[in-house]
Amino acid sequence: MGLDDRKLAVLRAIVEDYVATQEPVGSRALVERHQLGVSPATVRNDMAVLEEEGYIRQPHTSAGRVPTDRGYRLFVDRLSRVKPLSPAERRAIERFLVGAVDLDDVVHRTVRLLAQLTRQVAVVQYPSLARSSVRHLELVPISTTRLMLVMIADTGRVEQRLVEMPAPIPAEDVTDLRRVVNEKLVGTRLSDTPPLVQALVDEASPGLRPAMATLSSVLLETLVERHEERIALAGTANLTRGGLLDFQGSLRPILEALEEEVVLLKLIGEVEPSTMRVRIGDENEIDNLRAASVVSTGYGPGATIVGGLGVLGPTRMDYPGTIATVRAVARYVGDLLAQN
Amino acid sequence: MGLDDRKLAVLRAIVEDYVATQEPVGSRALVERHQLGVSPATVRNDMAVLEEEGYIRQPHTSAGRVPTDRGYRLFVDRLSRVKPLSPAERRAIERFLVGAVDLDDVVHRTVRLLAQLTRQVAVVQYPSLARSSVRHLELVPISTTRLMLVMIADTGRVEQRLVEMPAPIPAEDVTDLRRVVNEKLVGTRLSDTPPLVQALVDEASPGLRPAMATLSSVLLETLVERHEERIALAGTANLTRGGLLDFQGSLRPILEALEEEVVLLKLIGEVEPSTMRVRIGDENEIDNLRAASVVSTGYGPGATIVGGLGVLGPTRMDYPGTIATVRAVARYVGDLLAQN
DNA sequence: ACTGGCACTCGCTACAGTCGAGTGCCAGGA
DNA sequence: TCCTGGCACTCGACTGTAGCGAGTGCCAGT
Lengths: 340, 340
Prior knowledge:
2 copies of one chain form a homodimer. By secondary structure, chain A is of the alpha+beta class.
């Protein structure tokens, strides 16, 4: 059962009108606002077919049509082309991101920018440690039995962790530890690190071995296994636009989902290079987000990907515009990181 | 115009019932549920007085009474005593906070704990840099012209910032810089730092002066002036309890306010030692929060205060319970910090 | 294959009527 | 003087009815 060009045009018109007005769209209004060149009755027939195929539906018998998730999917895949950014948006992006002093700063500015431009909830993942390599490890004595371990990654991320030593540790041992871990680990990717870290202990001189064991277990635990990922969020207030019509009346599940770091990572963390990922309504694996859509992509310096970013909004969203904005922001951020 | 004991008892009963049921409370229901020892008619007379004095009001003519902000204020000040925590709550607090490995970890656990116990939005300020003193400053060369400055504060906070040097800087200069800044700044409070930092430049040897000037300006700018404060937030999903009845139908202003770091700091940042601060509805300086109440206090090791924490919820909240929980959590966190 | 016409559906709004919770007031009693 | 029972009144919430109108599906005609 093929859909001819006109039926596709009708679907496109329905999506565009519904996104713009937030109201079910009827056949009469449709022919008035779009140059379809046919009468309402014809459009009605097309609509009947589109409905049968599951692309649109009627909220109730005597109402207009509304796109289904499947309809949006078809729209995104075949009926829309990415809008070019307006010069104003371009300027906004540049103005917003220049002058960032810091990775933290870059991430915060980015997430706010995204929220502002798309008027939706924005999510930005910090550069993933798994995709970073070690630039430097620093050990700072805090007390006789405590060290602060500071790791600086090539992506600009800095992580620190308190290390509780089994026994008091003299200053020269700290120097030795520092030298050894840096020699062995600088330049390696953290995802490749576990065996190396393991090896550190075996290779350490007997006197240093207990200290090194503690240190390596902290390294493994904190930097590799446990919440290695960080996330920034902005624009939750945008969820309240469209006065509760979106999200079938309750923000609750959405807000709950947004509080879970794991969920957010799932949202934006799994990206292949230079792909835009659009998940519409039911396509979301997370139950709480079945009423929402997510547009996400990866970012990083040059062609490599170090993290993900994206936005979350109602299924009724301006996909072409949102996709364009997310892509553009991801590119700018990538360029910014490349400069460091 | 004094309010006799019975009128106060009536007010207390109204607040308690309204908080519990979320519905305007009438005179009949009141005498049934509380042992007031008088008839509904008498209660009605008392209510009339309370209303005249502005402690309660009628949403509409034939409805029961609802406390006003002023009524809650009187209730909090004179009619309630702080509920002792249930053993279950005590246990929850302990279980939640032991095993925190990190300042970050402590703050995150605390904010989630608070949100969970009070079932409201929780806000925790990281130990303020202005109230911390410097424990150690580390300079890590990133490239010939870039240093990573890492500051470790006695409160456990770690801040880092990239320093762009005016000229390539040799390794021994880095060592000198590190030694000098540590000698001069370790142990000082950051709020007292500006003149000291200024002095660093003047005292530096001529060769180091340009580098020191850059370093000191970064120190001043980042660590003292600019967003020195950090905030953690949790439980926004709790805003949706009480199905839009609280917050007069729109979460928008609340969510917007919660996105502004400045606003949050105002909420919980200005605390005097060991005081519970309760701001009810209109008492809030922030317009967006006129429909909400905030319960906050300071925390820190021993008697000193290093930061604030608190919760935000509907004016219709369980004040005694919330106050007790916030206070208890603040104490536990303080003790935890004291152990470091 | 498209179109105009027509009967039909059904949500929305307005309106009227009823119910009941709650009030204010008053006269009578401790 | 203060409290109480009684009573009339108010007004929101709910129910049922009716009319409107947007929108549809179907059909006969071009």
